[in-house]
Amino acid sequence: MGCERANSVEAEAQANSKRVTASSTNDATEPIVDVDFGFRIDHPGEGWKLLGEADVKQFNPDAEAGMLHDSGLLCIVIVSRTPDMGLEAAAEFVGQQKFPKQVIESSRDVETSGVPGKQHIFTAEVGGVAYRYESTVYYRQDHVYQVLSSTLASKPASDLDSSQDTFAFLDGEVRGRQIIAPRIERYDGVGARVRDGRFESGVSGLQIEPPEGWGILVGSQRERIHPDSEVVFSLGKDAFVAITTETVSTDGQAGMVGFLRTRGGELFGEARGEGQTHELAGIPVSFQTYRSDPFEYQHGVFSHGSAVIQVSSWYTVPLADELRPSVEALYAAFTSIPGDERERLVRSLRETPAQQRRFEPDRSYWGGTFRDFANDLSWRCPQGMWGVDSFDAAREQRPDAVLQAQNIEASVMVSLEVWAADGASPADILDRELEGRELVSRSTASVDGVPVQRGLSSGRVNGVEFRYATLVAVHHGQNVLMEAWTANPGAVQDEAMARALANLRFHDRLEPVETLGRTRVDRLFGRRFEIPAGFELSQSELVGSERVEVWKSGRRELTAWSLSFVNGLQEESWIYDFIEQNARDRISALGRFGAPERSEVEISGRKGRHLRWSAAGGLSRVEADFLVHELTVFAFVYSNFSEAEMAEVRRSQQL
């Protein structure tokens, strides 16, 4: 029996070393050889798992291969077809894609398999977490290669030293391959949705079923490409079309169309030619072509019902002649949603708002409430078609912004900014905000015991009238400015702006996690559960987007594990398999457990996954519950718990 148990433990350890996820069939230690793009990655050794195309695209949809270390260090390979560029231009092209708060630490020339490259090591913040990156760019046979390694900035810089050593080029021709975006059958967003592969917008009244080869980018993928858009369509990595929608009154549409056309000319570079007219949803739309190397852009603006719609398309200049017909085929797929169907769609979107989550280590948005633990502020999202932008996108617009949200239907934007108090009073700050605007009204009030200044104003920007609602306060040594604005002034918009500002709350102390009696409340991740009687907290750690807490009582141990994938691109089914494998790796490292038994379990009214490991002789037992909810993992790991004790903890959890 002892030999059999030892064999079982060893077999599990061997199997785990070769799997990226619990359902993986590929050996993660075997070299990856990509004959189409002409490169290979060899296995670096202990602790590493190679990522094939299916797995690596869960981390970055543009990647073709990569590898992951059990420390969390990730290395990916991105390849794109860009003829007639050269290494210097390729390095500049990749370098234009800046990360938030990017700081270059070093740069050098390198060479791999006789191919010269440009390497940069830099730090940046993504999702409020500091990372260190090593980016190496090569240009070979009309293809740009980026080998990108990343790890937490808190870890030694030397961790990156050998992360790219096993990448090499193959001899021979780089033939490439067609990259086709996966088809999305169903998605529920803010003001829009996807059904049976067709995009439907309740705001613009457009529906688009993309032609073959085109994919629909939604959620984090859309935000990564064009955060201001309603939807983005991609033709592999070669061409992109983004749609941006503004609700504008009939009287203001002509002015808004002109404003957006002018701004497009400022953004996209040198105009080329006279422009062309394409028919979208039965409407002739004038498109201007621009060039800003290495891209050619097409930009068109038109009115459709109560909306003004921008269509922005881009692709690299050397491929322009090849790709324009495909872009025009997508334009031809634009159609109008019939009146009755649109009314039903809008009603459905209002009744079932999108479930959004945003996450950073010191602030989060879930359940319709934003919580800023660093500044003791919270904000409740009003009812309606409101969407909350990623925190990185908010800071990109305004460096001091901690929140940015928008009502898609009313075309109202809201921003919350916080910065260190400089001695100015709320009245002084409001005076500065009102400069150059026409004052409509001004008042003072008290919110949660904090004096606030409020102002309602209007102004014109490039001939377009804007309406602003502003709230200013000083709280805990910080200036707080919340402002809502719209380019579509009206009673509906005034009400939406007033409701948005009224939902801001000031707290004496907003704790991200605390114990109330026997209830553990985690406001950062959004979970609460009852601590079993007699258990004491022995460990509580937050690293990046992961919190681990360990509670102990004698030989029994309860681990509460929360992990956010909100800022990533992963699919829920993949997360389940990846997290199960992660748990199996950790338990296997104890050296006492073989393969677990898997079953389904109900957690917080939802179906989750349960694993059970038994050690030799049954003297110790480890079990785990996993639930993936809104791209967040909520897990319990039980050591030496009875079935009844586990059920009690499970029943107590609320999300």
UniProtKB/TrEMBL annotation:
Residue stretches of biased makeup (Polar residues): 14-26
Residue ranges of the region described as Disordered: 1-26
Protein name, entry field: Uncharacterized protein
UniProt source species: Plesiocystis pacifica SIR-1
Source species taxonomy: Bacteria, Pseudomonadati, Myxococcota, Polyangia, Nannocystales
